[in-house]
TrEMBL record:
PANTHER family: PROTEIN SSO1-RELATED, SYNTAXIN. The lineage of its organism: Eukaryota, Sar, Stramenopiles, Bigyra, Opalozoa. Its main location: membrane. GO terms for molecular function: SNAP receptor activity; SNARE binding. This is t-SNARE coiled-coil homology domain-containing protein. The keyword tRNA processing does not apply.
Length: 286
């Protein structure tokens, strides 16, 4: 027992205090970014509830604008946290390869790193779920507003209209763009924005999945931590597949809007040519 205590004391004396301080700084920075993400996620949930009960179009627009800002804010925080965690992983691997005091310090710091990684994965998962929940309510709101259009009277229930929209995201915008050329432009811009937001969401989840796979090399294969990470990777992959389907719908909507813009442009040119010909004929006859 005495020899074990002496060995422990010797090991503690070999810790590199500067490296520990450096890891403490990293941990504080990651924690601050994850706090930002958690606050954004909490606010997104509040916005979802607000959007669900809102009846005014202007109120809905304000909530959607704030949600878009929060998505960008949480995305930035997660990317920053991911970069710091990646640097910590590289630093720990280098310290272990050096052996001696650096290797001992790396082993002491590794549990805090793994705990932060687990929190990072949980925060990202919660953030994506909040974004998806807001999106679902926004789609439901769009479907309700579409009920005001006579073109959808043949669809008996809102659920059927929602299913129809899921199969064809361009369904409602088609009805809107039958009215004016300005609406075509609006639908095209909206489709582009939704497509870019979905791409950002997919990048978030793919980065988490990649990070979890990389860190798995630094921990024991049979540990409880690994099992938790693998489970979260599977969950992240499910979100990726779901996001890919939504992204494909958004891209289809964008392509359809672009085609309509081209058609309107061609029609406008043809009309101008016809008018020019008529005017020319009148002037020539005169």
């Amino acid at each position: 027992m005495a020899s074990a205590g002496a060995a422990g004391g010797a090991a503690s004396l070999e810790l590199n205090s500067e490296q520990i301080k450096e890891f403490d700084t990293y941990c504080d920075r990651v924690g601050a970014q994850l706090d930002t993400t958690d606050r954004a996620t909490k606010r997104m949930k509040e916005l979802t509830r607000g959007l669900d009960i809102s009846t005014e179009r202007s109120d809905g627009a304000k909530l959607e604008a704030e949600a878009k800002r929060l998505v960008a804010e949480s995305h930035k925080a997660l990317r920053t946290a991911k970069g710091i965690l990646s640097g910590m992983k590289t630093k720990a691997a280098a310290m272990e390869s050096q052996g001696g005091a650096s290797a001992i310090t790396a082993r002491v710091c590794l549990p805090r790193y793994k705990a932060l990684l687990q929190r990072f994965i949980a925060a990202t998962s919660a953030s994506q779920q909040a974004k998806m929940a807001f999106k679902d309510v926004a789609v439901g709101r769009m479907v309700s507003q579409a009920r005001m259009m006579k073109q959808f009277d043949h669809i008996s229930t809102d659920e059927e209209l929602r299913d129809e929209w899921e199969r064809d995201p361009d369904l409602i915008t088609k009805a809107i763009t039958r009215t004016t050329h300005g609406s075509v432009r609006s639908a095209y811009v909206q489709a582009q924005e939704k497509s870019m937001e979905m791409k950002e969401l997919l990048r978030d989840i793919e980065e988490v999945s990649k990070m979890a796979a990389e860190i798995a090399e630094l921990v024991e294969a049979r540990s409880e931590t690994i099992q938790s990470i693998v489970g979260n990777v599977d969950m992240a992959n499910d979100y990726v597949k779901q996001g890919e389907r939504s992204l494909e719908k958004g891209l289809n909507s964008m392509r359809a809007a672009r085609r309509r813009m081209c058609c309107f442009a061609i029609i406008a040119v043809v009309v101008l040519l016809i008018v020019s010909g008529v005017i020319g004929g009148v002037l020539g006859g005169a």
